[in-house]
Amino acid sequence: MKNVTIDVKHVTRVEGHGNIAVNVADGEITKLELQIVESPRYFEAFLRGRRWYEAPHISCRVCGICSVAHTTASVKAVEAATGIEVTEQTLLLRKLILNAEQLQSHVLHLYFLAVPDYLGVGSVIPLASTHGDVVKRALRMKKLANDICAAIGGRHIHPIAVHVGGFTHFPKPDELVGLKHRLEESRKDLFETAKLFTTLAVPDFTRETEFLSLQCGGNGEYAFYDGDLVSTKQSEPTKVEDYRTRVLESVVPHSTAKHSRSPHSPAYMVGALARFNNNADRLHPVAKEVAEMLGLRPVCQNPFHNNTAQLVECVHCTEHSIELIDQLLTRGLKEEPPVKPDRFGKGAGTTEAPRGILFHEYEIDGDGKIEGANLVIPTAQNLANIEADMRAMMPELLDSGMSKEQMTLRLEMLVRAYDPCISCSVHLLDIEWD
Amino acid sequence: MRPRIAIFSLTSCEGCSLAILELEDQLLSILDAVEIVNFREGMTERSWDIDIGFVDGAVSTPEDKREVEHFRECCTKLVAIGACACLGGLNTLKNYQDEDEYRAYVYGDCAKYFPTTPAQPISAVVNVDHELPGCPMVKEEFLKFVTFALAGRTFKLPEDPVCVECKKKGILCLYEKGIICLGPITRGGCNAICPSYGAKCEGCRGIVAEDALKAAGVNLREQYDVDLADVLADVRMFGAYQEKTLP
Q: What is chain B's pLDDT, residue by residue, as a tens digit (247 residues)?
């Protein structure tokens, strides 16, 4: 095909509002954009003037799907700015609730947003009658993840008990025992999910890019909660406080979310595939087996396999959560009051959200009020990379003999593979600190 | 005929749309009882012939205003879900800052590409038939609303403040610890979830009716020597838009 115009408004089965606009004239791509048309939100602006302890409860409202990750990055940033060191129990509880959010978000994306494309339907709704057991399995897995979030934080969407310095509520031991049993039971569901994914025809497309994620030092765990920045093009670690040397942002007119580049690449990828590519050797042995079963090996350069990496991470998070619950039960849960600040200043916090590395940075004045804030969102970091993929894929599609409808679907599937969280991505800021 | 349902989002985190998907135990029954015909976050098909439209998010751009007017035209009943749609929500915090300044703070020289307006609840732009408040909305309340709608009954929000539910659960009042909590002046129906998990009520379900507000003021003064004005000062977080209706 020599001439084609693709205009998708809005891309469905993604979080938030985005359009795909492609023009090809005489075989030349004259326009190719993933337009982010989500309303700008201005969180960084209206965090200013709020009190230090309000930061997590305000900034979790950036995103309903990954509000635990925003809460986590936010409490870590405030703690870095106020000299707080949290207890071992707090760390274990935070890792557990973060694991549960990865699980709930990945299951939602795999079954509700991505799988319908592979089964040739427009949503999960018709699958309820044709593939009832599959939908029930998905709901069971999602509910378990949400119940873990609720036991620790009060609820998954905008958790209540996660505060700067610690928690204001603690799960009862019998709640944790019950959740552990359900996690063990869910191994069957994960295995069935993996079997389903071996049957899906993942598009064959590769483009070499850079993968950025956190990595724990030494023989540390597969990094979600903490770590330093590493990438497939710069393996020596960078501390979170120096993240601005690795993440370079700019504004483009067709997107309310900023685009990101690295010192090495005009575009890079964050998320499950990036974490897998950097940290596959640290996965739980069962997750490694599932990766092998699905044929996923680092460094994988096919963005459609972000879905496969999400599934491998579901297995890892399940096994790791069982271990965390065992540790919490062995230690015994204590009602610890949150640790209080001993100073106010500037600090950055990071965590791996389901969609990739997330940064929060705050400057807090002597009275404990927030003076400046910066949030760097995973989906915004991926936008330039998605466009680069679309640009590389378009000539292949034009040569493939596909109809315009098939090409459009393939582009939408590519965007969905990144699991973009668009309403999250549209409030970014680059301010110069003194 | 099953009612034709749509779920829309304006300026928000889409957490209230997501809350519907978090009704895992009831989702299949809901899908049996209603027909979802338009839900960008979850499905590709889109119809504009709609019996009940649920909207999360505030109106904060010219495009939001156009969209919500379109939703109003296409939906027999329009229901605002969540603090953003019902009260303007957190988005209204920007209304207290200089518009040129906050736009430049976030987008620098490119601010001109991204139009914005002061954040408003959708009822400020179009007629709204029902509101299901909260940040996020209480998913059990959504379920109750749908059940009532299917039975042809009118759903009414609880009138009592969060305080009543909190006392029933036997939770130690946060005022006893010297913490200012919005429970006495905030509409209940959330089963006092924040105090249940050790946090103060932040007022996400909006302020109770005038009589209840007056009663709360007297009670706070007599019991805890707290001025109602100090409590209302915290309302800005979720519902700054309500300030014009306050005493």
A: 899 999 999 999 999 999 999 999 999 999 999 999 999 888 888 999 999 999 999 999 999 999 999 999 999 999 999 999 999 999 998 888 888 888 888 777 777 777 888 999 999 999 999 999 999 999 999 999 999 999 999 999 999 999 999 999 999 999 998 898 999 999 999 999 999 999 999 999 999 888 888 888 898 899 999 888 878 877 878 876 776 666 6
CB contact under 8 A, A423 and B14: yes
Chain A environment of B62 (Cβ under 8 Å): none
CATH of A43-425, one of 2.60.40.10, 3.20.20.80, 1.10.645.10, 3.40.1410.10: 1.10.645.10
Which of A155, A423, A431 lies at the smallest CB-CB distance from B12?
Answer: A423
- Interchain proximity A40–B28, CB inside 8 Å: no
Strand partners, B5: B36, B52
Tokens read off for B112: 């001109």
Instruction: Say if residue A411 is exposed, middle or buried (CB neighbours under 10 Å; 0-12, 13-18, 19+).
Output: buried
Q: For residue A433, what are its two tokens?
A: 């600190």
B28 vs A contacts (CB less than 8 Å): 128, 135-136, 139
Interface A:B, Cβ pairs < 8 A? 175
Tell how strand A210-215 and strand A228-231 pair up. antiparallel
Chain B residues touching residue A430 (CB < 8 angstroms): 108
Crossing angle of helices A88-107 and A132-153, rounded to 10°: 160
Q: Determine, for residues A45 and B24 on separate chains, whether the beta-carbon distance falls below 8 Å.
A: no
Residue of B nearest to A424 (CA): B13
Domains of chain B: 4-150 (3.40.50.700), 162-245 (no CATH)
A65 neighbourhood in chain B, CB within 8 Å: 14-15, 18
CB contact under 8 A, B110 and A128: no
- So where are chain A's domains? 43-425
Q: Name the nearest CA neighbour of A352 among A301, A316, A300.
A: A316
Tokens of A114: 């991505």
